[in-house]
Design goal:
57 residues; mainly alpha; 1 helix; globular
Length: 57
């Protein structure tokens, strides 16, 4: 689903999550299940603050 098609409450939740991630400098890659070897080829790695492929370990 694209960002514009998300319900209003999900868009707000995503915006709050992004703001919190940027303000606390918590990188998603540190807790992502794809953070090993060549499993992730995103250019943001290893300092991603947002990622559509993020899955918690």
């Amino acid at each position: 689903m694209s960002a514009n098609r998300l319900p209003w409450y999900r868009r707000i939740a995503e915006a709050v999550r992004r703001i919190f991630a940027v303000s606390s400098k918590r990188y998603l890659c540190d807790t992502c299940k794809w953070d090993y070897g060549n499993a992730c080829s995103r250019p943001e790695r290893p300092n991603a603050l947002t990622c559509p492929d993020y899955k918690k370990k």
